[in-house]
């Protein structure tokens, strides 16, 4: 960051929303900076995202989130061709296990029809079981949304940011916003460590902390309440995994506990939905395991706790009223608020970014397209997706493609090095970027190899390497 | 891509793989060993404590010393190629002439296409981790499996932390309690869910009692605390199988090591289509340790988790002898079933030869003094042995000789039932 230069736009928060906005703005002649308080992008709400591209039937057409969800969903095919993140339209089912539940499913179907969802169908028992043989045979019927799918959320966020960076956007991690000063037509943004950034426009995409960021600007008062969700990840070799995302009939608080065949072949069950106070509380509990599996087995009976690889918790940033809050601040000119982006935030993200771009334009930002904007990200080879013959070609160029670092997920040293060179300098950053440590051994075999590569590539001592930033150092010192 | 043919491929250059490869080479066959690490020896290299080789060499060796003996044996054998830093990553199509084709990925050798008439699975095991046992709480840095911590300390020279709590009383956890104490770290206690230790008694005495490290039997770590780095654990006593949260106490530590069991590392076995035994987690094998895929054999901790390396070596050498017979076209197919009976969790192998000496390994389901091992065929007892003490954590081995089977050839049901009374 050049000390005294003034950015056109500062986007606060490098989750999926901030990333999508940064990439959207990267096609204009603008100086854009993306500020993130954590050590890496996607370390907040987005890292625990369920990875579903929603089907557009959970909310009626009056909700802003429904309109953005529908539009967002349709943009993913093009984005995947440009950015190469794992994404598959596997389809979504909502299973009804009683006549009462089927009535609720009919309401969802009506939502879908009113939202003009393509291909949505109301299905009887036989059709449901044909679509998903792993479904509970007691199913009475349900809903099928073929346009729904699954995505790897972190790869999507990283790809958006990389493409934005390739087109000139700057990313500043470890920048926790603690002060905002208003000075002649620009904001002076100050971090906890005293770093300073000036920008004419600002976008508040701070997720769980959008309320405190708004307060720092002296803008609208609102409260973000974290709603915790616990998820359990099952081994790819587990028996009885479904091919489609299976939802129950939703409750008032959430879309319910569902079964998600991840795009990478594992399976996720969850999430729970509990409103809490502490925005850093990511603890999991024993009672939720039983609750989640009981609910998941009601949909897909063959699922077993024995196949759990890991569990984790994420927090949804909820606002009173339940809808997204996306608008230009009425109190602070040149600030756009993007708050309360819980589910279906990831699906909506590409549409949210267009919406925010329009708000910025309305607020006076001049948008001139760059003739040399490149929407394409170079494809990074990943050995688990290649045949031995293709890997053989790669090893001639770089022998590190032959070094298998993570045996469970099939990740080569060359991929780890590529991640480090893209700025991922923590173990979790490497994990989300490459999948190394994400498999069944959970890093038991590969962590020491990754530590070695990180130390070599970054020049820092092994003791300084962290799991996810300062305070999470991995080692207790040298012997 | 480099292609090469051998009589046999050995997957894994640890104690099982080294012993098997040396023995196959001694039989006059060509053999290749694929090893992921930079040197042979497997987990022995990080086991710098002693206690190895008491049965095989009648000597008290450290892990690296034990490994060194087999490294030398392999180095002096003819017809052995060792591919270090090579991972058997993909499995090729099987043909009639060469039933086994495997792609080894390597920084040193590029991609290798290796084929052979026989293969030996000797990849060892991996550690159960936090996700497998589902410890609730936060997810900070500082939660490691004991074997990973052992590697960090003994090979790379780093302390995993300064104040540790060890979950599970498996052997690696017990040995790490002593090792950490020696290295200047403090071990606040070992927490074991069972009412008895799951490691060897000698390790409880030498690694905990001698250092005054408390062993909390019938307790669980019910929560991990700390935001970025571990700040402590909550330990709860188990009453009637349920953690009593109201009686929980807190230990302030910065590290949690998990020693909660080992699982055979069957990734490659699954890619080859080998049928697995749900009790051991390893392949199902016949009397000659051949898996459900013809020509593919299994031994060592990949087959079932052993408590002593000496047993691994012994099993691997026997496996290699059967591989040699298979390669020579002399593999004995006359075999009968072996089934676990009362109080027995598993018996390996799952078949026996009626006409030759058989060696078995079993694990009991019970803790018992003055127990009796009983072998029955068709309801008739063929052999009994007194066992001073049995417990699930200590493996029992025994042999069955052809003489003991004499006169049973006419039985309608030849299945051997192994039970503990």
What does this structure look like?
The complex is a heterodimer of chains A (about 475) and B (about 425). With about 475 residues, chain A is of the alpha+beta class. Chain A folds into three domains: about 1-85 and about 150-225 and about 320-380, FAD/NAD(P)-binding domain, CATH 3.50.50.60; about 90-150 and about 225-320, D-Amino Acid Oxidase, Chain A, domain 2, CATH 3.30.9; about 385-465, BFD-like [2Fe-2S]-binding domain (Arc Repressor Mutant, subunit A), CATH 1.10.10. Chain A is about 30% helix and about 20% strand. Chain A contains twelve helices and 22 strands. Chain A has helices at about 15-25, 65-85, 100-115, 125-130, 155-165, 210-215, 285-300, 345-360, 390-395, 415-420, 425-435, 445-460; strands at about 5-10, 30-35, 50-55, 85-90, 90-95, 120-125, 140-145, 150, 170, 175-185, 185-190, 195-205, 225-235, 245, 260, 265-270, 275, 310-320, 325-330, 335-340, 405, 410. In chain A, the strands form five sheets. In chain A, strands 1, 2, 9, 10, 11, 12, 19 and 20 form an eight-stranded mixed beta sheet that branches. In chain A, strands 13, 15, 16, 17 and 18 form a five-stranded antiparallel beta sheet that branches. In chain A, strands 6-7-5-14 form a four-stranded mixed beta sheet. In chain A, a hairpin with a 5-residue loop joins strand 15 and strand 16 (about 265-270). In chain A, helix 2 (about 65-85) packs across helix 8 (about 345-360). The longest helix of chain A is centred in the first third of the chain and has 20 residues, at about 65-85. The radius of gyration of chain A is 22 Å and the shape is globular. With about 425 residues, chain B is an alpha/beta fold. Chain B folds into three domains: about 1-125 and about 265-325, FAD/NAD(P)-binding domain, CATH 3.50.50.60; about 130-260, FAD/NAD(P)-binding domain (3-Layer(bba) Sandwich); about 335-420, Immunoglobulin-like (Sandwich). Helix content of chain B is about 20%, strand content about 35%. Chain B has eight helices and 28 strands. Chain B has helices spanning about 15-25, 65-75, 130-135, 145-155, 170-180, 200-210, 265-270, 310-325, and strands at about 1-10, 30-35, 50, 60, 80-85, 85-90, 100-105, 110-120, 125, 145, 165, 185-190, 215, 220-225, 230-240, 240-245, 250, 255-260, 260-265, 295-300, 335-340, 345-350, 350, 360-365, 370-375, 380-390, 395-400, 415-420. In chain B, strand 1 (about 1-10), helix 1 and strand 2 (about 30-35) form a beta-alpha-beta unit. In chain B, about 55% of the residues are buried. The chains are: A alpha+beta (about 475), B alpha/beta (about 425). Chains A and B meet through strand 18, helix 9 and helix 12 of A and strand 6, strand 7, strand 8, helix 3 and helix 4 of B.
């Amino acid at each position: 960051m050049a000390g005294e230069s003034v950015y056109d736009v500062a986007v606060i928060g490098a989750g999926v929303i901030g990333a999508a906005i940064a990439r959207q703005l990267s096609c204009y002649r603008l100086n854009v900076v993306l500020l993130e308080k954590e050590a890496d992008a996607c370390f907040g709400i987005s890292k625990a995202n369920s990875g579903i591209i929603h089907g557009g039937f959970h909310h009626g057409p009056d909700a802003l989130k429904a309109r953005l969800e529908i539009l967002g969903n349709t943009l993913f095919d093009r984005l995947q061709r440009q950015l190469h993140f794992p994404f598959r339209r596997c389809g979504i089912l909502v299973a009804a296990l009683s006549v009462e539940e089927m009535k609720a499913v009919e309401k969802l179907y009506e939502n879908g029809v009113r939202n003009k969802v393509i291909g949505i169908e109301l299905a009887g028992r036989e059709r449901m079981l044909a679509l998903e043989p792993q479904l509970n045979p007691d199913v009475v019927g349900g809903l099928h949304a073929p346009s729904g799918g699954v995505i790897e959320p972190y790869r999507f966020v990283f790809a958006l940011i990389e493409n934005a960076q390739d087109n000139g956007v700057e990313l500043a991690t470890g920048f926790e916003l603690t002060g905002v000063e208003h000075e002649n037509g620009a904001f002076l943004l100050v971090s906890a460590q005293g770093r300073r950034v000036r920008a004419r426009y600002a976008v508040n995409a701070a997720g769980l902390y959008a309320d405190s960021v708004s307060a720092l600007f002296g803008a609208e008062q609102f409260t973000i309440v974290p709603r915790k969700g616990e998820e359990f990840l099952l081994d790819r070799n587990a028996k009885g995994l479904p091919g489609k995302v299976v939802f129950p009939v939703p409750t008032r608080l959430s879309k319910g506990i569902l079964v998600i065949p991840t795009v990478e072949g594992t399976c996720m069950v969850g999430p729970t939905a509990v409103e809490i106070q502490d925005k850093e509380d990511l603890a999991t509990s024993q009672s939720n395991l039983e609750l989640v599996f009981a609910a998941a087995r009601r949909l897909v009976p063959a699922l077993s706790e024995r196949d759990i690889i890991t569990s984790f918790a994420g927090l949804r940033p909820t606002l009173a009223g339940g809808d997204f809050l996306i608008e230009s601040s009425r109190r602070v000119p040149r600030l756009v608020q993007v708050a309360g982006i819980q589910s279906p935030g990831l699906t909506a993200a590409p549409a949210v970014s267009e919406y925010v771009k329009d708000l910025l334009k309305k607020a006076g930002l001049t948008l001139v397209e760059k003739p040399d904007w490149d929407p394409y990200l170079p494809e990074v080879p990943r050995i688990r997706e290649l045949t031995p013959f293709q890997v053989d070609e790669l090893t001639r160029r770089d022998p590190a493609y032959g070094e298998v670092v993570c045996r469970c997920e099939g990740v080569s040293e060359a991929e780890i090095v590529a991640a480090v060179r893209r700025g991922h300098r923590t173990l979790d950053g490497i994990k989300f970027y490459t999948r190394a440590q994400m498999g069944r051994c959970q890093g038991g075999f590969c962590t020491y190899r990754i530590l070695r590569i990180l130390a070599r590539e970054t020049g820092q001592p092994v003791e300084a390497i962290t799991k996810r930033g300062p305070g999470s150092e991995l080692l207790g010192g040298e012997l | 891509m480099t292609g090469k043919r051998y009589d046999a491929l050995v997957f894994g250059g640890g104690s099982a793989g080294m012993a098997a490869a040396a023995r196959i080479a001694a039989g006059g066959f060509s053999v290749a060993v694929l090893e992921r690490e930079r040197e042979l020896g497997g987990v022995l290299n990080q086991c710098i404590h002693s206690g190895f080789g008491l049965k095989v060499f009648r000597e008290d060796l450290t892990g690296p010393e034990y490994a060194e003996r087999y490294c030398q044996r392999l180095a002096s054998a003819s017809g052995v190629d060792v591919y270090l830093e090579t991972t058997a990553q993909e499995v090729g199509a099987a043909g009639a002439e060469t039933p086994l084709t495997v792609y080894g990925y390597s920084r040193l050798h590029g991609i290798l296409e290796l084929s052979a008439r026989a293969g030996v699975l000797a990849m060892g095991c991996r550690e159960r981790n936090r996700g497998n046992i589902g410890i609730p709480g936060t997810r900070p840095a500082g939660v490691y499996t004991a074997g990973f911590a052992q590697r960090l300390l003994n090979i790379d020279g780093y302390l995993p932390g300064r104040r540790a709590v060890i979950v599970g009383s498996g052997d690696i956890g017990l040995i790490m309690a002593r090792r950490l104490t020696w290295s200047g770290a403090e071990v606040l206690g070992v927490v074991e869910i069972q009412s008895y230790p799951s490691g060897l008694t000698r390790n409880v005495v030498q690694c905990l009692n001698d250092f005054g490290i408390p062993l909390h039997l019938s307790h669980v770590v019910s929560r991990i605390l700390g935001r970025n780095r571990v700040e402590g654990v909550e330990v709860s006593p188990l009453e009637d199988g349920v953690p009593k949260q109201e009686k929980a106490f807190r230990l302030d530590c910065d590290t949690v090591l998990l020693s909660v069991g080992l699982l055979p590392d069957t990734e490659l076995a699954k890619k080859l289509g080998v049928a697995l035994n749900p009790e051991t987690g390893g392949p199902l094998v016949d009397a000659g340790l051949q898996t459900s895929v013809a020509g593919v054999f299994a031994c060592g901790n990949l087959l079932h988790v052993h408590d002593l390396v000496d047993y691994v070596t012994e099993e691997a050498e026997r496996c290699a002898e059967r591989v040699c017979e298979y390669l020579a076209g002399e593999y004995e197919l006359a075999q009968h079933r072996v089934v676990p009976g009362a109080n027995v969790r598993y018996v390996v192998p799952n078949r026996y030869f009626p006409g030759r000496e058989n060696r078995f390994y079993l694990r009991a389901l019970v803790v018992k003094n003055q127990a009796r091992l009983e072998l029955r065929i068709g309801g008739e007892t063929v052999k009994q042995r007194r066992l001073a003490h049995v417990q699930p954590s200590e493996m029992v081995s025994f042999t069955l000789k052809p003489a003991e089977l004499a006169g049973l050839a006419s039985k309608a049901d030849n299945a051997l039932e192994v039970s503990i009374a």
